[in-house]
Amino acid sequence: MTEHPDDSTLQVPDCVPARMLNEFVYCPRLAYIEWVQCDFAPNFETEDGKYRHRAVEEEEGRLPQELAPADVIHARSVWQSAPSENLTARIDLLEGHGQMVTPVDYKRGPEPDCSGGAWEADRVQLCAQALVLRANGYECDRGIIYYASSRSRVAVVIDQELVSRTRSAVEGLRRLASSGCMPAPLIDSPKCPRCSLVSICLPDEVNILRAPLQTGEEGVRRLLPARDDALPLYVQEQGSRITKRGEVFEVWQGDTRVAESRIFETSQVSLFGNVQMTTQAIGEALGRGIPVLFFSSGGWFRGIAHGMAHKNAELRIAQFRTASSPEGSLQVARVIVRAKIDNCRVMVRRNHPQAPKEVLAGLARLAGRARSATSIEQLLGVEGLAGRLYYQAFPGLLKPRSEGGEWSFDFAGRNRRPPLDPVNALLSYAYSLLAKELTVTALAVGFDPYVGFYHQPRYGRPALALDLMEEFRSIVADSVVLWSINNGVIAGGDFLRRGPAVALKQEARRKFILAYERRLDTLVTHPIFGYRISYRRVFEVQARLLARHLGGEIVTYPAFRTR
Predict the structure, then answer these.
(1) pLDDT digits (tens, 9 = 90+) for 497-534
(2) How many other CB atoms are there within 10 angstroms of residue 248's CB atom?
(3) Entry pTM
(4) Do residue 357 and residue 335 come from a single domain?
């Protein structure tokens, strides 16, 4: 377990939910993530279970306060608490006559082939419900588990042995919650592949980082999906509006519907310039955890609307603690900057027809200096030198091309605010899209995106998102720019000048967004774990690994350095 002595003030609710008791018996780490850190990720099985559970979700049936022996009880979704047992429970179905009642708990799967016909975690959860009922004056000597897939009912006797195990589990979960100690992951457990929280827990990844010598040559199991099922919705046609109809977001221009996106397949909504979204559509997005992002018409990332803040206060406490510590911030920043420089070096080596040896040697030397920097200021200087070397070689990564009259893709160095040439306009646009992506990722994991370690807090700047994107600037954003130019996707006629500034035309932005999304969907081999996942999935893995480092589970944040 990872100890946080400064978090001893964590308040544990008086009553443990019976459902969390089930999770604790199944896997203490799962219970900690879901109950203490309030983190959750649905998968097919949880959504299917919710669907099968719908018959007992609504509060129905008769349950008089004063019961007579002749009263027949058949009530759904009964919520009761027992402070004397430190328990609270929402009972799916309560059956009985008079004071003698039987709780019925619904489970989505089939009846298991195990001793007693029910899993231990399910038996403990049912016993917890029985203890709550007893504390409220009912008699309860047995319960029923209904397994929906096999349509079978398994009776569970509430004997003293089961009661003792249940009370011990209650005490154990409360002690775990008050300790502020994240339990270690299970090791190579068959429970992990079907767990909906596996992408949050990262059991095999954390284990290999904690004890790399114990991991075999076969590497790490890829327990999380390689790609996300949901995709972003971008709307940039000025005057467009987004509405909601049933389970679909619809995009309208005037009275014409021009596009639609099924809500459950939408990961985020990006609005550029004068694009409207109805209150109903925004409310649906926020209720489902779909962030709505706002850009200027030229692509400047302005802000984000999202639902209630992530409930993982423990992670934000650790984030603020590290951000306020010069030593803690420097430890994270050194790793990030070194990875950024290493990835820039890889980009030059892979894409330059005659990679300058002095540039490669200089970047390698600066990566070493980043690893041993003694202050953030020194690190900024190292990064600045590395940036000049990298952009010195950048013109050699571009294929010679000149189209559309005055416009060419010559590159004489980085400029911004505003960009003064097409290449810099593309780079700025790509970095804005990437900053948006990492802001969404940071919020989803539970971070405050405005409190960073390398980038110091500044009004309106998502400092942590900028930290997280450093290691991906070259291998994602710059890569998209190079691919778009070198393959003729973006041509000289795709730009316009506004004073000294150069910007992409609307149709060119659409083409560039498609190229950017294609890059995020590309499968890449993770350099530490060996499995292949998309870049968008890599962003989430890296953010969660940073959370594990801040929480004390792993000693160093393992930045992503491409091979």
Answers:
(1) 877 888 888 888 889 999 999 999 999 999 999 899 99
(2) 14
(3) 0.85
(4) yes
